[in-house]
Every structure is written in structure tokens, then in C-alpha cells.
Write the C-alpha cells for this entry.
Amino acid sequence: ENREAMLSSKSNRLTEALEEANRLFDGVCRAREAALDAQFLVIASNIGKEKANELHSEMSAFDSAAFAEDLLTFMGINRTELEETDDSADDEPCVFLPSDAWLKMGEEALKYFRRAPTFHYMMGSFKSEPPVPKQRIERQKKASRGKAERAMPAQLKKMEESHQEATEKEVERILGILQTYFENDPNIPISFFDFVIDPNSFARTVENMFHVSFLVRDGLAKIKVHEDGLPVIEPLKPSGGEEEDSRAGVRNQVVINLNQKAWQ
Amino acid sequence: QVSELVQFLLVKDQKKIPIKRADMLKNVIREYRDAYSEIVNKAGRILLEVFGLQLVEIDTKRHIYILINNLPRAEGQYLCKDKEKEKMGLLLAILSFIFMKGNSVKDSALWEFLHLLRVYPGKQHNVFGDVRKLVTEEFVRQKYLETTPIPLTDPPEFKFQWGPRAEKETSKKDVLNFVAKIQGKDPTFWASQYSEARATS
């Protein structure tokens, strides 16, 4: 409680208090009293440390008030203003200091620190424009992403469906072409290879073969080996009835081996 | 991996909050844990040789690092944001006060000193904003200052000392020179501080 009084360097009160504590301790017989005693010792030692600290700085007489005044001077305080407004209440103390006071202080301070300069990405020669559009873009992205995600489940389903549809459409288209060729001249067999090969694209060729295989599977076209050993393809008229069934029994499975070299 | 760590450290250092080894392991090194010390050493070398920055471990128990500038202080303009400069100014004033007062000050003493500089921790400052927060949180988190509670004080009081970053980025000698410059005196004017500064450089 009497901290300040004890701190005063002229005071012996700390010593007196310690001596009294020593005397009291002899009469201690309960744990609680011993705890209080211990508490007192901690406080006393803190005060003792503070006293020692004060002694230390007093040796070299550091006047913090004078230091503060000198700092303000360095920062460029306007002292005439100070005298005039001395009577006024201390509401706006910052008025006395110029606005760049602390900046000036900071410039000087940096000389005393080995501070690593903060790392920033160099955005190039463009100055204030990028930040603004960036924000907008980010917001747009976030918004559209949200929508896109919501649309995704619906879309995905559609895509899968359309894949099948695409194949079916392609197959139909090819059937149509086949039928057209055949109708033009039913007697000239259409060479299978002529039909499927795309001279410009190996991938397309394979795709065509893929689609043709559907036609064959579904009984809409047939491939037979011509006299010269090369396969020919012709459309079939899908008709219900026993004829179909008996013919369906004569199905063959053929594996066609075609690699890019052969294609070329 | 090394260059990733270098970039990670440079970016993490922007806020001047010390970097923990755990963060380095989690974000960069990950599966290369065993080579950890090798990677860190190499990263340190690159930072030193390419960027002139020193990777310093300020806490060897908890493995916490900071980046400081290894290059000698150049005279002239510093590439630094104004906000950062102003904070450094305030920090230097505080560090000076702490050192000259014997390396440790009570919080009440520090606030009293700041009042003399027209900085009031209770009020919003037009440059520093929430000063109390800046001093007790930001500077402490950055390890420029260290604050410890004084036991058995009610209401609780704290004492302030230099933090490990302050010890590395500046020195008692530099700070004494600053005080001497501001007060227009020779550093030897303060005998005990002067001998202490000489002893620890």
C-alpha cells in the first residue's frame, strides 16, 4: 500500500517492514500466515528491485522530460503556438505538432534499425489502375463461380446425355450418307475403307469406323468381303420378321486393325 | 523447395511477425521434413547472398525466426511506407526511454513518457490510431517489445523491455547515439548507459 513512500530513496521503510516481517514470522504457526508472509516477501522484493533500478538510473541522471522536449523540437514543434494556447484545455494536443512530425522522426529512426525492407511484388509500371479492376474482376469471378457451380450439376447431366445423343446423331448421319450413296447406284459396292477413311484425319477415320460399327450392330448396315478381298459396306433395310432373325444369326465379329501408318 | 521457402519467408516477413518453424514445415517443406535443416540453411544463404537479409532464430526453443537487414545502413532515402516510418519513429522513442531508464520500465511510466510526446494511449491518435494497441499488441507480436506482468499487482501492472527483434535490429550503442544526437550531448554524458552499451556491442 505504501509503495510510493517505500520507493523514496530516503526512506528506510522497506528495511523496517522487512525487519518486522522477520519478527512476526517467529510467531507463525498456521500455513495461511506463512503464505501471507511469502506474499509479503514477493512484494517487498519487487519494491526492492524498483529501488535498485532507480538508483541505477539516478547515477547517470537521465531526464526523460528533457528528452521528450528535445524529441518534440526535433519533430518540428511550433513553440509559439504552445505558449498562446497554454490556457486552453488539453483537448487537441496534436495541434501543436506539424503533420509530418512523426514522419521526420521515422526517417531518422530508420537509420538506427537493420530492418529488412518489406517484400512486395513489383506490379510493373502501371500504377493505380490495376487495383480497381482487379477488385471488380474478383467479385465477378466469385459471383460467376457461384452460378457456374450451381449450373454444373444440371449441365453435367446434359453433357452426358448429349454425348450419347451426339453419337446417335453421327450414326444416323452416316447411315443417311450410306443410304444416299447406295441409292445413287445400288450396284456399285461401296468400299468400306473409302467410306470410313478421312484422308485428312486419322482420328476422324477411327471415329467413322466407330459409328459404322453401330450400324452393323443394329442391323442397319452390313459389311461383306468383296471379290478383291476388301470389305464393302451396304445399308440394310431394317424390317421386322423372321427373315431378319435368321439373318441375325449369321453375325460375325470382326476386328479391324488399323494404325496410323497403315492409314497413311 | 529452397526457392519456395525463400519466397515464403519474404512474404511472411511483410508484417514483421516472426515466422514459426511449424509454419515453414506445413506450408513449404511438407514431405521433405528430414531435409529441413539443410533446406533452411540453403534458404538462409540465398537470402544473405542475393537479398542481403539475415535469417535469425530468435527463439531456439520454439524455433522462431525473423529477417533482418545484413547490409550496412545506407545514408539517404529509405524505400518504406510512411506508416511504417512513423511507427519506427515511435518505436525508437520507446526503446530509447526503456534503455536509458535501465532496460525495464513500468507501463505507467511508459504512458507518462508518451504523454510528454503528445501521444495518449487512452485516445485515438491522428497518426497512430489506437496507440495502446500498437504498443502492447503490434510491437509485442513483432517482438520489438516484450511485456511481462508484475506479480501481485492489483490492478495488474506490466513492465516493458526490449524484445528480441529490437536486440537484433538495433543496439544499445546505436540508441544511445540517437539520444545523444537528440539532446545535443556526447554519449559519454550518461556514464553507466555508455559503459553498458560498450559492453554489449
